[in-house]
Amino acid sequence: EVQLVESGGGLVQPGGSLRLSCAASGFNFSDYSMNWVRQAPGKGLEWIYYISSSSGSIYYADSVKGRFTISRDNARNSLFLQMDSLRAEDTAVYYCARDAYNFVGFDYWGQGTLVTVSS
Amino acid sequence: QSVLTQTPSASGTPGQRVTISCSGSSSNIGSNYVYWYQQLPGTAPKLLIYRNNQRPSGVPDRFSGSRSGTSASLAISGLRSEDEADYYCAAWDDSLSGYVFGTGTKVTVV
User: Fold this and answer.
1) Are B98 and A59 a contacting pair at CB < 8 A?
2) Contacts of B53 (CB under 8 A, 6+ apart)
3) Chain A nearest CA to B62, separation (Å)
4) Which of A35, A46, A105 sits opposite B47 (nearest CB)?
5) What is the pLDDT of residues A47-75, one digit of tens each?
6) CB half-sphere exposure, A7, CA atoms < 13 A
7) pLDDT above 80 for B2
8) Do A108 and A98 meet the contact criterion of CB atoms below 8 Å apart?
9) Can you give the pLDDT at residue B1?
10) Hey, are the CB atoms on A47 and B98 less than 8 Å from each other?
11) Is B33 in Cβ contact with A103 (below 8 Å)?
12) 20 to 30 Å CA-CA from B98: which of A6, A99, B36, B91?
């Protein structure tokens, strides 16, 4: 069974840092591209980061440029999101999502982890 | 600010057909596949439609997708109470070099 489990969320002050993790199981993690998608409270979905299976291609949204960094460790079946210079508007539930082959979309999602940026 | 525009809400009675629209541009819907995601209250999104009109296994054939030019639509036929959810379209955007989601449509079964 495919599972994606995010962790690392919590309360952080503006300007602070947080590192999110996404533990993958039930599939060959190193074969799949991955994404981070966030959802502010009561708002819609916002894609923020993509990383290819080998980390050779990375794309990101302008809203996180220069502040967030995506990475992965295929040996540990894990995806990461390093978040620096956090702002109040970064408050959201952060989901990791698997990017299926052949343009099948984000076929599996984690349950999400809440990040709250507040003083 | 979402690049793909959806009507905020739609509603219908059980058994009715509801259609949700998604408007984009030549850099996203006009040149790339459209995906649809369903988000039930308090849960993570779920893939509903891929490659404009394909359903993953397990998704009822009551859900259908289509694309025409720079717009796409999701139709739900035989509406059921469990279809009450938020629905989002998505596509890759060549100009932004990233995925973009629609603004979301809340479907209510009255």
Assistant:
1) yes
2) B64, B65, B66, B67
3) 19
4) A105
5) 999 999 999 999 999 999 999 999 999 99
6) 4
7) no
8) yes
9) 63
10) yes
11) yes
12) A6
